[in-house]
Amino acid sequence: MPANLSPAYKKAEQEYRAARDDQERLTYLKGMLRTIPKHKGTEHLQADIKSRIKLLTEELAGPKKGGKRSGPLHSVRKDGAAQIALLGPPNSGKSSLHAKLTGSRAEIGPYPHTTHEPMPGMLRHKDITFQLIDLPPISADHMDSWFINALQPADAALLILDIADPESIDHAAVILERLKEKKIILEEQWSMPDKNFTLEDNDRLDPFGIYLPTLLVANKYDLEPDPAALNILKELLDISFPSLVTSICTEQGLKELGTLLFDGLEIIRVYTKAPGKAPQKDKPFTLRKGATVLDVARLVHKDIAGSLKYARAWGNGVFDGQQVGPEHPLSDTDVIELHIR
Could you give the C-alpha distances from 62 to 59, 74, 78, 222, in angstroms and in order? Predict the structure, then answer.
């Protein structure tokens, strides 16, 4: 039986996907349960939603009196233009790369599983930052049970492999399979789906699946400087992720990462100004391609978004100071001046 999901449910599902932390996810899960059509075709989905509400409620409430919490939530609140999860097998150089790119104090050692908790760090690019989260390695024998929670806020992933390791193909295959078992899919396509894209629009999309556009990072290239090595790896794995060759020792590829993330995620920077004053150029609002004036207003403050009348815009496709409506689409480096009722 088709689900025939209502517009209200689709909106709640969309908000759930965009939630920044577990409290927001719980709120939108309750909205999904409240608005989902109640019939036989949605029974399994209703049960899944109820199960997730129960789990999140218990985790957010903390341990019962006299009891023990099973561990921290392991979800890092999103910061910067986007959150990028670093995934890889043991000894792929993942933590070393994270430390080099962000200046973090990630624990690094010549032995496996030196990373035990999510480690955030900020990668600067132009006048914005990307939040890189170093996660524990994944192997055939081990993947932390909280990985789903840790990846929930992520916008994309870096799959980091040691290009000089002859077993890197096997490691990558294990990672892809272990993640798939948890409904975590590493995507080759980086372009954004339609903002109203939901389960009913595509049978493969699970409302609780995590779909991460992924960049394959062939690390330790200084140990295997064969130009054909990366293509051989991708061919044997039958994958077509966009890729980057890196080396901590030679710093090859490190400067290119920010540009790849910026372009791949279609980030735009929007600057705001007050009437009669210069734009605030030190800290732009970061959004994705297709964002509107109203989207920026929501980032400034929900009350401003609620009372937004129009904006004046400087930048692409407008003359300086042109009056535009709330649904006016924005481009990178646009400047806007918000006017409320």
Answer: 5, 14, 22, 47
Identify the burial level of 262 via C-beta atoms within 10 angstroms of its C-beta, where 0-12 means exposed, 13-18 middle and 19 or more buried. buried
What are the two backbone dihedrals, phi and then psi, of residue 94, each rounded to the nearest 5 degrees? -60, -50
Structural domain contains residue 183: yes
> Which CATH number goes with the domain that contains 199?
3.40.50.300
Structure tokens that stand for 293 in this block: 């004036």
Least confident window among 113-117, 234-238, 262-266, 290-294: 113-117
**Range(s) of the domain holding residue 34:** 7-61
CATH number assigned to the domain comprising residue 316: 3.10.20.30
pLDDT tens across 210-231, in order? 899 999 999 998 887 787 888 8
Q: What does pTM read for this prediction?
A: 0.82
Asked which of 249, 264, 279 is the last residue of a domain, the reply is 264
- Kindly state the percentage of the chain with pLDDT values over 90: 54
Domain-located, residue 289 = yes
Query: How far, in Å, are 231, 232, 262 from residue 235 at the CA level?
Result: 6, 5, 26
The candidate with the shortest Cα–Cα distance to 37, out of 29, 48, 45, 27, is 45
**337: phi then psi, degrees, rounded to nearest 5:** -125, 115
Q: What is the pLDDT of residues 32-55, one digit of tens each?
A: 999 998 888 888 888 888 988 888
Q: Is residue 66 part of a domain?
A: no
Look at the chain and report how many structural domains it folds into. Answer: 3
- Pick from 210, 232, 264: which residue ends a domain? 264
Instruction: Indicate the pairing of strand 156-162 with strand 210-219.
Output: parallel
Contacts of 77 (CB under 8 A, 6+ apart): 20, 21, 153
Asked if residues 82 and 122 have their Cβ atoms less than 8 Å apart, the reply is: no
Phi, psi of 210 (to 5 degrees): -115, 120
Do 279 and 258 share a domain, yes or no?
no
Q: State whether 303 and 214 are in the same domain.
A: no
Query: Which residue has tokens 């409430």?
Result: 61
